[in-house]
TrEMBL record:
Organism: Cytobacillus depressus
GO molecular function, one term: metallopeptidase activity
Keywords assigned by UniProt, alphabetized: Hydrolase, Membrane, Metalloprotease, Protease, Transmembrane, Transmembrane helix
GO biological process terms on file: CAAX-box protein maturation; proteolysis
Pfam families: Rce1-like (PF02517)
Residue ranges of domain CAAX prenyl protease 2/Lysostaphin resistance protein A-like in the record: 177-268
Lineage of source species: Bacteria, Bacillati, Bacillota, Bacilli, Bacillales
Identification of the protein by name: CPBP family intramembrane metalloprotease
InterPro entries referenced in this protein's UniProt entry, alphabetically: Rce1/LyrA-like_dom
Domain of life of the native organism: Bacteria
Transmembrane segments: 39-55, 62-79, 91-113, 149-166, 178-196, 231-249, 256-279
Amino acid sequence: MLSERMTVMTVLRRQTDVLRYVQLFLFVVIMILTQNKQFYITFTVLLAMIIFMSIASIQTRVFVWAMIAYSLGYLVLLYGDRLIDKLPLNISSLMILNRGLLLIPIFFMAYVIKKFNRNWSHYVKKPNWQAKISFPFIWKGFHTVSIKLFLLIAFFINFVVFIPFISISNMNLMDPSFLLFIIFFSIVNGILEEILWRGIVLTRFVDLAGEKAAVLFSGIGFGLSHLAFGYSWFVCLGFAIGGIFYAGVTIRSGSLLPAIIWHFFFNILMILSGIIPYIG
C-alpha cells in the first residue's frame, strides 16, 4: 500500500511539473502571437487557459491572469502608440514616449497580481553585490565571480563587441538633444523593461516553476518581445540570451538594480552604434 501511494504521488508530481512547463510553453506561444499582432488566436489560447483554471491551483490562476493582463496591456500599448504618433513631436521624443507605454502592461499585471494578494516582485530590494554567479550556466560553470565583478566583465565584453559598430558620426556628443536622448531613452527603457521582465514576469515564473525554468523562459520571452521592432529571429535570439543573464543576475543578487544598470549601459551602446537610431 505504501509503495502504491508513493507511486501515485510520483505520478501526480510529474503531471504537475508537465503542466507547469506547458504553461511556460504557452507563454512563449502567446509572445510570438502578440508580437505578430495575432490577437484573435492569442485570446483563443487565453480562453482555453481560463477554462483550465477551473481545476487549477491558485499559483496557476495567478500566472494565467497575469498572462491575460500582459496580453491586454500590450494591446492597449499598441493603440497608445498610434495616438502618440499623432503628437507634434520629433521622432526621438516619440521613441521615448513609446517606451514609457510599457507602464500599461506593468500596471495591468501588477493590478491583477495585487488582487490575488501576491507580491508583484521578489526583487525590489538592495542587491547583494558579493553574491556569486557562474559562467556560463549562472548556477554552475567554469568560472565563478561576484555580481559586482561579473557586471564589470559584462560591461567590458559588451563594449568590445560594439566597438566595430560605433561610428564617430553617431557620437554627436556636443548636441544637447542627442545627449538627452541617450540619457532619457536608456533610463526609461532600461528601468521599465526590467520592471516588466525581471520584476513581474520573472517573479511569476519563479513562483510557478522554480528559478532555473523561470530564468530560461523569461529570457526567451524577453527576446521574442523585440520581434515587434523589426529585429530578425537571429537578433532576438541574442536578446533572449541577454535576457537569461539579466534574469540570472537578478536572482543571484536578489535585486533588479544590477540588471537595470547593465541594461542602461547596453542601451547606450546600442544608440552609439546606430542599432537604436537617433533621429532628431
